[in-house]
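Subject: for your reference before the review

Hello V.,

The reviewers asked for a structural picture of the protein, and I figured it would be easier to keep everything in one thread rather than splitting it across files. Below is the amino acid sequence we used in the manuscript, unchanged from the supplementary table.
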Amino acid sequence: MPIVDIITDPKALTMTVLAEFSAPVERLWRAYTSAEQLGRFWGPPGWPATFTKFDLNIGGTANYRMTGPDGESSCGYWEFVKIEEPKVLELLDGFSDEDGNPVQEMPSMRMRLEFEATVTGSKLTTISYFPSVEALEQLLAMGVVEGLRGAMGQLDAVLQDLREYAQGKGTRLEMLDEQRVRITRLVNGSRDLVWRAHTEPELIRKWMYGPDGWRMTDCQIDPRVGGKYRWAWEPENVADGDGFAFEGEFSVFETKSRMVASEQMVDTDYPATQNDTQFYEEQGVTLITTIIVYPDAATRDQVLATGMIDGMESSYARLEQKVLNS
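And here is what came back from the structure prediction:
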C-alpha cells in the first residue's frame, strides 16, 4: 500500500496524505496530469473515474464522473490554480452535476500535491484545505479516507509498464477486504478483440469453458444495461459429474471498457455475486481486471476453495491461444 500516513487536523482544517512510490517523480507526475492515467486509479475500486474534460492550464478545469457497480454516478470538477512541473500541482476540488457545474450545497476543498524525488523513487504529499470543520467532518463521514486508500492502492499498477506489471504472472488474486477480491490477467491482444471475446457467443465458446475435459453447452448474452446472460457447462465424460450454469443481468455496460453483472448459480442456494470487469490496453496487450463482490467472507472463501482461479487461468490461456493468436 503506497499510503504511509493520513493525518487530519480539525484546528488547521487540513487533511494530509503521505504516500511513497518506487517510480521516478516524473512518472508519478504524468500519472496525475493525464486524463487517461487518472481514469485508471482516481476512483476507488468499483468506482472508476472517466475524465470528460482535462485542461491542464492555470484557470483550466477538469470534469470527471465516477460510476458505481449498480450504474449510479458521482461527478466532480477540478480547477487548476498552480502548476510547477514536476513539483507542485494545486487545484480546487468539488462536486458537480452531470454538466460539470459545481454543486454549491456540497463541500469543496483546495488540494496541494507536492511531488518529491527520493532515493528509492518518489514521495507524494497531498494537503487538502477545507473551508470549515463541518466540511471536513462531512467528507470524512462520506468515506473520503477509505476512498483515498482504495484509489492509491491502484496506482502502483499504473506507474509500472503494463508488461512489467503483469506479463507472465498468470491470473492473480488480491484480497481487497472481507467481501471483495480483485483478479487480474494480462493477455496478448487488443482491447477490441478481447472485448469481442467477452461479448460474442461464437468467440466465448472457444475459450470460456474452464479446465480441460469440460464443454460449454449454453451461451446466451444480451450485451446492454438491463440485458441478461446465461452460460452452462458440462463434463465431456458423464462419469465426471453433473453440469452447472450461471446467469445474471448487466447493470453497467460501457463498450470496450467495462461491464458489471450479477452472477447466480442456477438451481442452487448459493448467494449471487457482483462481477465488475474492466479492460485496459497498452502497447498491444490488454489487462483484464475483475472485482468480485461476495455477500460475506465465508462465501468468498468457499468459492475460492473450488479452484476458481486455476479454472480462470485455463480459460485465459485458451483465450490467447484460440482467439487472440488464431
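For the response letter, the relevant points are probably these. The chain has a mean pLDDT of 93. DSSP finds ten helices and 16 strands in the chain.

Happy to draft the paragraph if you're swamped.

O.
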